[in-house]
Amino acid sequence: MRRGWVLALLALASGVVSVALAVAVNVATGGVLPPVLRPLAVWAWPAVGAGAVAAAGLALWQQRLQLPAAPSTAVATDPAPRLTPAQLPPEVADFTGREADEAALRAAIAGGARVVAIAGPPGVGKSTLANRLAHLLRAAYPDGQLYVNLGAGRGDPMSTDEALARFLATLGDTEPAPYGDTEALTARYRTLVADRRLLVVLDDAQDADQVRPLLPAGPRCAAIVTSRPLPADLPEAVAFELAPLGTADALVLLARVSGSDGGAADAEAATAVVRACGGLPLAIRVAGARAARSRLAVADLARRLEDERTRLDELHFRAWAVRATLGTAYEDLAPRDRRLLRRLGAFPGGEFPVAAAAALAGTGGSEACDGLDRLVDAQLVEGSGGERYRLHDLIRLFALERLAAEEPPGSADRIAERLLDWYAAAARDHPPRWIADEAANLAAVARHGAAAGAHERVFRLAEAAEHGWHLQHYHAQRLRVWRAAEDAGRAAGDARITARAALVIGSIHGADGNLEQAAPLLREAAELAGRTGDTQWEADAHRHLGDVLRQTGGTTGALHHLRRARDLYRGLGMPPEESDALGKLATVHLVRWEFDAAAREAERALALLAGGAGSSPAYAQLRGLAAAAYLRLGRVAEARAAAEEAVAVHRRAGNRLGEAYGLGGLGLVAREEGDTATALACHRTALRLFEELGNAPGTAYARGDLGGLLLLLGDPAAAVREFEAALTVLSGLRHPVAEGLCRLHLAEALVLAGDPVGAAREQRSGEALLAGTDGWPQLDEARARLTALGLPATATG
Question: Cβ distance 350 to 300 under 8 Å?
């Protein structure tokens, strides 16, 4: 453009010079100029000179523009315009949860971390979180974002050289890529990014060797790495382990993917779905997509996922498949680790110790420990601390599939037998604390063994664990173990196993107040044990059954079974057990107001506890029974001595529950002596101890005693409050006789408090509970007092 203007000016200057020269020559030769130009004649020669100079200058300028530019000696700072890569995949529209993980990752990068590594099991959402984080950080890295999927999860990992070549091409490098020379490629890559503010996302990495050359070296760059195992030998990385979603976030994700409105009708089914998915986002997305695309109700989806055998089949939708994702991780393992994972899938419980894993695998403890460490690194087993481990539910199901497909027929049964044998031996050899810690696993292993047909082994496990349950009071877990043993016994037609299981289950129900369930089991146990010749079990069944019948009002039957237990124990030469049966007999005689017999049986029971047993809780309990009998026989001094001794023995032994019952008995003695202040103090202290211990039967007992004393003191309103409080407790205990008697006492207090309508209501309720009782004179006494107060008698059954 400049050259064109110069040429035009040069032409103009030449024209002006030509005109001025013509004028000058004409004047010099005597020519005559036109009248208009005559005043300019004197300027003709100066104009020629000036025009010539201007033309010469323009000519030189034009010539300079035609010359080629001299080579520059300056260093080019940016020979080509920089490319700004923007390779991040689109954000997931329904991203859910992960607020704490996201905040921690952002804080790490803001704090100076240049590499963050996100690890976790297959399908946990590592890539989704990394991409979300990268999008959030885009503004902080204006020179661009590089992304590459390194393909470890596909089973075909990309070579580092290929990834470097892709990055170089994206950054505008046009030199041929020297494949095979990773060092040269890395140097070129790092040179290109050295002064940039660049974010690099390395998704689905295999290991540190694959990742390290791809990390930018520039001080203003950062990298996000995702990998199933935490990359070892990558000290510059700040590591984050990603866990499955919590229930609340998992439900939100399911609702978003499936399009469900999350209404109350679907809430329970949705919870079942996310539980079946184990909180794994991939599985939840598959389930939600199936529900959305197939118009499948969430409740129907939940039903399909209930069956563990087909759950992985259900968790498949188009290109998404939980089984395929887990399969790639499985194929990456060494053969010995695949075998260990397969066999760990056969563990039926939750967390397991190393020794249980060794039993499953059929290896030594050291070998199992090393294998577990490798599986933890591969994110296929979770470490729980204290050398305990667990499998995610979907990984467990996958492992079971591989076990069935790859191990010889019958392997699962042999693995179950090894596990039962190990747990039985461990239960025998370990203290009760261990049994408490393993309670859930003992129950699960027993159930699994029963289903596998290992009947005798299940029974041996149940027996081996018995020494731990009594101390820990783990009734629910103990019940599950013995129910498995009962199933095993019935399935095998083994009367001996069935008898023992029915005995233990019945006694647990009796202790828990489930009296209606306890009685038939104990009857069956007594009959079967009598047939099989297991005399001690037969005696135990009669003893527990007698106590259950007493509590349900059948005192005649109670006496029969307790006497049978006493005789069997005597024949076996078992004094402590015979003493216990005699004590229970004394209790039945007290209920029947057969006080001489009660005192006699209590004294016989005490005599059997000779030889240092005078300081035992059993001795103190029997002294308390004797005190109650002596009191009703009018032997008040003996009653006080026995009651005081019972309390003192319980206190020395640190038995606060026994102390509370003993104080209740001592309060009754003080009441008989007319010392109502001491009686009130005893009952209130007993109540406080029962409540501190959380003992419901004792709490109801103490409040009933207080109510009776307050009636005696002429305060029926206070008595009503105590009886009502006692009933609140008794209504949850399923003790019909105790509750019925308390309602009759409440009816008496209500009459005296001026509420005959309420009294009649409580009387009717109480009599309904007491129908069918026999041999309870105190019921007749309570009814007589109500009649004397003007309440008509009701049917007593």
Answer: no
Report whether 110 contacts 146 (CB < 8 A): no
Per-residue confidence (pLDDT) for residue 281, from 0 to 100 = 87
Detail the DSSP E strand segments found in 285-333: 316-317, 320-321
Name 53's Cβ contacts closer than 8 Å, sequence gap at least 6.
none
Cα Rg for the chain, rounded, in angstroms? 47
SS3 call for 382: strand
pLDDT per residue over 84-133, tens digit each?
899 998 888 788 888 899 999 999 999 999 999 999 888 889 999 999 99
Q: Which amino acid is at 413?
A: D
DSSP calls for 526-589: HHHHHHHT-HHHHHHHHHHHHHHHHHTTBHHHHHHHHHHHHHHHHHHT-HHHHHHHHHHHHHHH
In this model, does residue 43 exceed pLDDT 80? Answer: no
CB 127 within 8 A of CB 120: no
Question: Are 683 and 667 contacting, i.e. CB atoms less than 8 angstroms apart?
Answer: yes
**Which spans in 307-438 are helix H?**
311-314, 322-331, 335-344, 354-361, 365-377, 393-406, 411-429, 432-437
Residue 793: other Cβ atoms inside 10 A:
11
| Best CA proximity match to 19, nearest among 1, 43, 3, 53 | 43
Cα 571 to the center of its chain, rounded Å: 52
pLDDT tens, 188-229?
999 989 889 999 999 999 888 999 999 998 889 999 999 988
The pLDDT confidence band at residue 40, using thresholds 50, 70 and 90, is low
How far apart, in whole angstroms, are the C-alpha atoms of residue 227 and residue 203? 7
Rounded to an integer, what distance in angstroms lies between the CA atom of residue 188 and that of residue 40? 74
Would you say 510 and 532 are in contact if contact means Cβ atoms under 8 Å apart?
A: no
